[in-house]
Amino acid sequence: MQITEMLLTNKTARPGIIMTPKALVIHWTANESKGADARANRSYFNQPTTEASAHYIVDDVEIIRCLPENEMGYHVGAKSYKPEAVKRLSAYPNNCTIGIEMCVNTDGSFQAMYKKTLELAVDILKRYQWGIERLWRHYDITGKNCPAFFTADDYAHKYFGTGAAEAWNRFKQDIHNLLTSNPQKPQDHVDNCNIQVALPAKGILRAGVSYLPVRMVAEAVGGVVGWEADTKRVTVNGQQLDVSIENGIAYAAARKLAEVLNREASWESASRTVTLVPKSQNTG
Asked: Which residues touch 168 (CB under 8 Å, ≥6 apart)?
């Protein structure tokens, strides 16, 4: 992970007050304009009249550090704060939190920016030996609708194809997975075994065709799900799928989804259960 250091010189946004961080706060820039990337937002913070700042700004190309992590920024200021934030952080949470701004400029790749944000957040949490309980949305501290794609369903549907609660839970799960993943040590001898994974998910049966929740099923077997907000196009492993959106969740026909995952789908009518198994490796 590469970080570009462009520390602010604007004393209005960088007061130089030393702090001891207690938590990491996630924001979005709320600027979808073309060109509103990390450097543009850093330039905004550095204007003499700007009284706002964050420690990091992330776009699809780079991560910019605007403030040292042990200096206070102005990213969660408000007239009042939620009781839990005051209890766990302080009466003025700016003085103990690190802020990350996520860029949403339309000429950038949201998925690439999301991945860089994950990498940065995991790096910070690991260095301070924090778990995901130290991860906050701006909304959790002040009630502000930020980041909107983690707090408002309409924006979550636009950027993730799902509801806000699910999008935020996915972000935290992605962080948790990266925090807890450890490479396995080489083994002298390994035997094969069969594994079955049951997902706590419900599909849809419509006109005799079963439909499965795309992201939950695909990611469970190592598939890569893509979502294009502008076109509402869903891809799995680079292949486009026809989907329907139900309550913010994308569903695809079981056999179509199985095909792009290199799986075979079977239907058990008695239990109304769909089973996906790897395609036979026998070539005859």
From this structure: 137, 150, 151
